[in-house]
User: Fold these one by one.
Assistant:
Number 1:
Amino acid sequence: MLEQRCTWSPGHKIIIATASWLGLEFQLRGPAKVFRKNGS
């Protein structure tokens, strides 16, 4: 995994980092919205 990342271009690293960050955002916001709906 790490070896492949080192060979990728900076552009791909940015895209992957953004995609992974968005994935974390959805994982954090998804359950939060569900809890808010259940709470209220």
Number 2:
Amino acid sequence: MKRVVSLVPAGTETLIELGCLRNIVGVSHGSEWEISGVKAVTRAKFDEEGLTSEEISALFKVSCSEGMLYGLEGGAREEVALVRMRLCSYFWTEPEVLASLDPDVVVTVVDGSEMAGFDDIRWALRTLLNGKDVEIINFNPYSMAQTFKLTKEIAQVVGIPEEGLDYVRDYQTRLQNIANREVARRIPSVVTLQWLEPLYVSGTWTPELVRYAGGRSLFCRPGEPSKAVTWSEMNKENPDIVIFCLCGLSIEGSVNEIKRIQKQSPELRKLLEKSFDRIYVVDARRLFSQPSVCTLVDSATVLGEVVEDRLNAVEMIRPKSSKSSPLWIKLPSMVSRIPRKSSLAMVA
């Protein structure tokens, strides 16, 4: 049986969905999937508690630029530093813990912009594990097709290729059913916000999900990277639907950021006023951000209900986890008694 370490939540979820729980010997820290006896192999690059989106962005840039210097502190060997700083683009990896787990497969995300190339990372991991060749699956898709392909690749590597094919076919059918449903003739324009400071519109798989749901994504086409925009550009496009899916933030965290920024941004206040009836906030820890097949199809399901303005009717395909908090809210529901002319009070 292949021993698998998953350094990213989407990889862990995919393995569990494929029925490979027993293969998992290590996971990323803070995972919502509680697996008895399985060690955490990563840690956060910095403490995000209480930070604004602008502060988080600044610290993340510093962590990327100074990562190798930090990794070499204390005279660490080069392979140890490379594994610690570059094996996963999202988190720091604990080399000693990873080595103790003796993995056959590592599921991770290695960004193409990282200082070290993928071959260097392969060398570092092989050296750390005393010459053992480990299969590294770079779970970094830009489209649904790539997500399906990577899911089948994981199934192949752990020895269940047929189960992987069946699983992917099932979700491909569910996704196509979303696209095939009857919708209104007018296609609404949709903007999905990935981050607020700096302001980024979601790219990669999200515009594709919007298309499946019956909407027209603004600023980014399917497969394109996320794009920096301004609030003025947002207002000029005058979107029919605005969705805040702020990477890694809960609904509460997202609403707090909206409250904070609207106090200093007349353009955001203008957007909130114009799109008052069609503003949504999602828990991006559990929708959109993690590119596992099941999470993205769930996200498309929610988008379909948003496009039809029937969000209260949506039922998820499967329970995401034991958490009982909502996955999304329609922002006006927070202030349903406030007249439209006073709509800005909703984030006061």
Number 3:
Amino acid sequence: MSNLSANISTNTTLGWPPYVHEPHLLRIIRLIFVSLLAILGLLGNLWVAIKVSKRRSPLSSYICNLAVADMGVLALSFPIAIIKEQMPTNWPLGSFFCQYLYPLTEVFHGASIWSIAAIAAERYHGMKIRTPSKNNGKRTHVWYILAVIWFSSFTFTSLPLFFFVKYQKVDQGKFCIVVWPKSMQVVYAVILSLLWYLLPLTVVLFTYIYISSLLRSSTTFHRQSLKHLKHTPLSFRLSATETRRMKENKRALKILTPMVLVFTITMLPLNTLRVVLSLRPELTMWKYFLVVYNLSVIAITVNSAADPLIYFIVTNNFLPNSFCQVFKWLKCFRDVDTRSQVLQRRKNCMETMQLQRFDTRD
């Protein structure tokens, strides 16, 4: 997101382009919407990270890592993107933040994307090997993978920016921009699109297709087995085993379905815009560039904020327990209201009966 937002500041140093701006009311509504989305996503990911960190499975480690990365995107990258869009001629965070902290915020994007791929790969591994290992070596292996994810994300996204991010204070204002050498921006954009979009998308799609085919074959085998071994003791044992496996496959398929859809749709605008602008930088002067940029920011925010919904499917009894507590509280309040209403009715009834008695005596 850094090189895209830097294009806005670069354009303003060359003269303000004739961008198409939305009406003032629509801009306020958009900012409120994406801000609320980011806040809800931040709180949701924080809750997930706390909840999942208590578990020891490899899948829980990847989910916790994804939650942390998404929190970084929503808490750091998102506000910077809004600042660059709203104040393109007045960078308010100073030279140190621009040159040293601003590039670091990009590390969260790569970590988030490859955490999703790691979750998909873990589900694939769980389908291939039905007796998961519970030894410490498995846990150590997961930490190695997480370390590679963060190191690779820093190397390919943040590290190059340290050499090309510049803080400029001129008559037109204060700018934090990325000054790329000739053809270097194309290389950077292509590498990021390959490593942070096409390759992880391939991993997730492959896992999705594999589990889908496994689910179909399991269903066919299950039906044929019951047909040939009907009403035998073996059929009941086979039925229970295959039913359990089919449920596991269906659960894994439910995990990957939102991952494929959300990741493919929300990350496509950013990667497309990144490659197109690296090949044709003059398109940053296009009057609708700011509209496309804002849509890309919204899509990235949705991608990070929607992940807690994916955790709802990934982890068994994760959010349902929380919802059950809420429902119990609501039911308790409802019961309190009901009891109070009953008592009030009884009181009114008693008062009415007493009045009737007095009337009868009179």
